[in-house]
Amino acid sequence: MTLEQRKNIVLTIPEPGKFKLVERPFPTITSGYAIIKTEIAPVCLEGSRIWSSHDFEFHDDPTHLGHEGVGTVIEVMPGSNFAAGDRVIVFQGDHCGRCHACTSALSPTYCDANDPDIQGIEGAAMRGIEKRNQSASGGFAMERYRIAPEANLVGIPDELEFRYAAAANCSFGVGFSNQEAMDVKAGDTVLIGGIGFIALGHVISALYRNARVIALARNPYRVDMLRRMGVEHIIDPDEPDWLERVKDLTFNRQGADVAVDGSGVAYYQEKLMSAVRKYGKVNFSGHTPGAKIQLSPLHHVIDPAHTIMGQHDVRSLDREYLIRALLDSQVQRMVDVMVTHEFPMSRAGEAFDVQVSKQCGKIYLWTQE
Ligand SMILES: [Zn+2]
Ligand SMILES: [Zn+2]
Q1: Which ligand minimizes its atom distance to the CA of 68?
Q2: How far is the centre of ligand 2, averaged over its atoms, from the C-alpha of 169 (Å)?
Q3: How far is 281 from 87, CA to CA, in rounded Å?
Q4: Distance, CA 46 to ligand 2 centroid (Å)?
Q5: How many CB atoms lie within 10 A of CB 230?
Q6: pLDDT digits (tens, 9 = 90+) for 188-230
Q7: Domain boundaries, the chain
Q8: Distance set, CA 242 to CA 168, 189, 232 (Å)
Q9: Are 44 and 55 in contact (CB under 8 A)?
Q10: Which ligand is nearest to the CA of 99?
C-alpha cells in the first residue's frame, strides 16, 4: 500500500438509528502527536442519546464520533517517545502542557485545549486535534486510524490484553480515578445508585479496594451482573425501607462513607445524599441532559458536612495505578462481567440498539472489523 492509497474508515450516524461507514483521507500529524490504529472503541453516549435522538455534546456530531479507545501506534514524528508497534490506551482530548489540569496531572478533559469557551467549538477537544494537525480525519475514536497527543497515550504492558486495557476510559477508569480523588479505602462503605457502565466501573473499583459495596438497583439484567461481580448487598430503591436497610449495613448505622450516582437524575441523587454519614462524600458520575436537582446549601452540604464532587475521565496522576489495577485477576474477572457485548464496527447499529435496550453493560466496538 503506497502512502497515497492509505485511507481512513470513519463511523457516522447521519440520522438517528442509522449508521454509515465512510472513507476519509488518512490522518496527518505534527510533532507531539501519534497515529494509532484503533482496535477497540468502547461505546459511551454514542449508543444511547446520539443513536436514539441525535443529542450531541459539544465535542461530537453526526460525522465525528467516539472518544474512548485502545490500539497500536503506527506513526510518530522524529524524536517521539513512542514507536510504531507500541500498544497504547488513548485518553481523550488534546494536551496543552501549560494549564492547571496539565501542570497538576489532572484529567485531560479539563485541559484548556479541550475547553470550547477558550478554543471555540471548532478548535476544542477532538475537533481541535484534527485542526491543529491539519488532518481531514483521525480526531475521534470510531475511526480505523486516530490521532492523539503523546501526552495522552499510556503504554499497555505486554501481558495486558486490549479488552482489559479498554476499560481504562469511561467505565472502570472513571470509577477508579474518582475513587482515588475521594480516597476510598478498605473498610469504607460505598453506596452506588443508578447502575450503568460508569457505575459498574465504580463497583469494580470499590470491590478492588475491599470496600463494602451496596447497590441501589432495579433493572433485573444489571442486578444479575452485580451479583456475578460479587456485590452482596443490592437494594431496590423503590422499597419503602431501603434507607433503613442501607443504614443496617453501615458502621453504627451512621450511613455510607461514600455515595456514587451513576444516573444523573434526582431520583437517585436525593436518595444517595440522604444515606451518607456526617462528613461523608457524595460523587456525581452520571449526567442526564436537562436533569436538575433542588440543592439546599444548608441541608445538603453544611448540616451533614458533606463533600460533593464529580469528575469526567481519568486524572493523569492516576494512570499508573489504574493500569496496575487492570492487571489484577479479580479486576479482569469483573471486567469480563461488565463487558457484555462486543461487535465489529461494521455492525455498529446492533451495538447501539443493544445499548438503548439497557440489557447490557459496557459494549466494545472492534474498529478494524
Ligand atoms: Zn492543558
Ligand atoms: Zn466516554
Answers
A1: 2
A2: 7
A3: 36
A4: 9
A5: 14
A6: 999 999 999 999 999 999 999 999 999 999 999 999 999 999 9
A7: 3-170+315-366, 172-309
A8: 32, 16, 15
A9: no
A10: 1
